[in-house]
Amino acid sequence: MSPTAAVALAATYQHPALAAVETRGFLSPAGVEIAFLLVGLVTLGAAIVTVTTRQLVHAALWLVVALGGLAVEYLLLTAEFIAWVQVLIYVGSVVVLLLFGLMLTRAPIGRSPDADSGNRWAALTVAVAAAAALVWVVVDAFRTTWIDLDVPAAGSTRTTGESLFQNWVLPFEALSVLLLAALVGAIVLSRKAKPEPVEPKPSTPATGSAPATGSAPTTGSGPTIGSAPTIGSAPAPAPAPAEAPAAPAAADAPDPSEGGVR
Amino acid sequence: MHLAYPVVLSALLFCTGLYGVLARRNAILVLMSVELMLNAVNLNLVAFDVWLSKAAEETLRSGQALTLFTITIAAAEIGIGLAIVLAVHRNRGTADIDRLRDTAERPERSEKAEASA
What angle do CA B88, A47, B100 make, to 5 degrees? Predict the structure, then answer.
């Protein structure tokens, strides 16, 4: 008796959801849903090619397809301003920055066999498990939830600007300060070692006394970035003997090997 | 539109980016995968904002505002990240994450040093 009751309970439990699905026509999707699905397939395919291709420059170019597809999805979701910001910032600047980064790190043109690390199967397992869990939870949670796209555009420039400058002014201004900090930080990080010609000057009078040579690199290593290029690009013989007594043998061992590689 | 479409696409994109972060060796490819993950989050935010657009006065349109903030922070992140990768490449001659093991655990390294000695 109890199994039939359970079945009947399950039937009555599932019925409203199915009815709600059928009234909205789950099996006959609207045109915008079909467009969303097709663009989503293109986006997902481009993203998968981005993370699996062995040609580094092609990965950046497929990323353009994925991000552009996402901009189309934003347009389909009536978020117009975000769509154009996406095109402007991601496709216009981020991918260009990535291509410049690939160029400056001397990425090989053509197939590079070691683009993937050795743990790609573990990564694949983790990603598939996460995808399965997330999709299951999300589909189960939002099975009967519908977006009403017939209302006037939720993300037009007017409404976005009004909300941004009425309710979100303080975070907006704080974000501009953060962008300034990021700009200054990127410039400081990527600056060539200007203090390098200045650095041998204290070391040349300091060669007379052994403790003074130990103190000279420590003052130079206050800005760690400033001192690091002198280690890598040290053609001058002056810093090399200064480091040899200061650094232990364990820290000294990697340096000649990397100098030999490049 | 069914809310499951954008949300499922966002989940799949996020997991694609997760695979890229875990499986890639070049640091710039890892940054690309991070961008994919951030974009998945953006799609989620936009979808939920449009879903709740009836209550736009109560939610302050927080979804789209947060999406704009995320895009800005992603731009800052990619700038700083590329600067760090370039500095590492300039100093070490490589941008491969597998080879940057300076902060690996000490005992393993001392064993290697003893084995090589």
Answer: 20
Contacting residues of B for A94, CB less than 8 Å apart: 35, 74-75, 78
Structural domain of residue B31, as residue ranges? 4-116
What is the DSSP secondary structure assignment for residue A116, as one 8-state letter?
A: B
The structural domain count of chain B equals 1
Phi and psi for A173 in degrees, rounded to 5?
-70, -40
Count A/B contacts: CB-CB distance under 8 Å. 288
Tell me if the pTM is above 0.80. no
**Does A255 contact B at CB distance below 8 Å?**
no
Tens of pLDDT, residue by residue, chain B (117 residues): 889 999 999 999 999 999 999 999 889 999 999 999 999 999 999 999 988 877 767 778 888 899 999 999 999 999 999 999 999 998 888 888 888 888 877 665 555 555 554
Is A82's CB within 8 Å of B68's CB?
Answer: yes
Nearest CB to B72 within list A124, A175, A228: A175
One DSSP character per residue, A25-58 reads TSSS--HHHHHHHHHHHHHHHHHHHHHH-SBHHH
Every domain of chain A and the residues it spans: 24-155
Q: What's the angle, vertex CA B97, arms to CA B93 and CA B99, rounded to 5? A: 60
| Cβ atoms of A40 and B5 closer than 8 Å | yes
Residue B20's contacts (CB-CB under 8 Å, 6 or more residues apart) are A50, A51, B29, B30, B32, B33, B36
CATH number of the domain where residue B46 is located: 1.10.287.3510
SS (H, E, C) B73-86: HHHHHHHHHHHHHH
Q: Which of A213, A218, A200, A219 is nearest to A244 (CA)?
A: A213
Whether residue B19 and residue A127 make contact (CB cut-off 8 A), yes or no, is yes
For residue B1, the chain A residue with the least C-alpha distance is A147
Top CATH class, A24-155 = mainly alpha
Q: Is the ipTM of this complex over 0.90?
A: no
